Amino acid sequence: MKKVLFSLLLCLFVIDISNAQDLVTEFADTFSVNWETNYKKALKKSKKEKKPVLIYFTGSDWCGPCKVLDKKLFHTEKFKAIADKDLILYEADTPRNKDIVSPEKLEITNDLKRKFKIHSFPTLVFVNHKGKMIGYKKGLILTEYYYPFIQSVIENY
Questions:
Q1: Is residue 94 within 8 Å of 58, Cβ to Cβ?
Q2: Cα distance between residue 46 and residue 65, in whole Å
């Protein structure tokens, strides 16, 4: 009887934890940012609005640190406020499942990876409206360390 009761409590605990993770995911999605879908349009928008372009190099379906950065930086209210006011965002995704992105976008991503010598993920590259690099940060660091870096790029733009 004790084993049955223990097993039942354990099952309820596991179900409760899985539901809590679903709630965290739903909450994180409420602060989604607007990613440009076309690199050339992002550069044109950068020139028009006088904002730098943040290119986020990621492996969305396989890169663990990219998934953490996506959740803990890009889906926060603080980042959304900064991005909406001061940045143009472009995601350069290199997924293992090639059906996630179009062949054209994958080709552009590969060109950008060659241009900026990207060999690891995640990597953030800031460019001006001409596509010239003005800032660079690779790897996953504590989320709070990204904000001073992002602010310095924005202030020096």
A1: yes
A2: 28
Which pLDDT value is given to residue 9? 46
Whole-angstrom Cα distance, residue 18 to residue 61? 21
Average pLDDT, the chain: 87
Taking the alpha carbons of 66, 104, 112, 77 in that order, is the dihedral positive or negative?
A: negative
How many residues are there in the chain? Answer: 157
Query: Which pLDDT score is estimated for 4?
Result: 54
Phi, psi of 149 (to 5 degrees): -65, -50
What pLDDT, on a 0 to 100 scale, did the predictor assign at position 32? 85
C-alpha 90/C-alpha 39 separation (Å) is 7
Asked if omega into 65 is within 30° of 0 (cis), the reply is no
- Which has the higher per-residue pLDDT, 73 or 21? 73
Calpha distance 129→107 (Å, rounded): 20
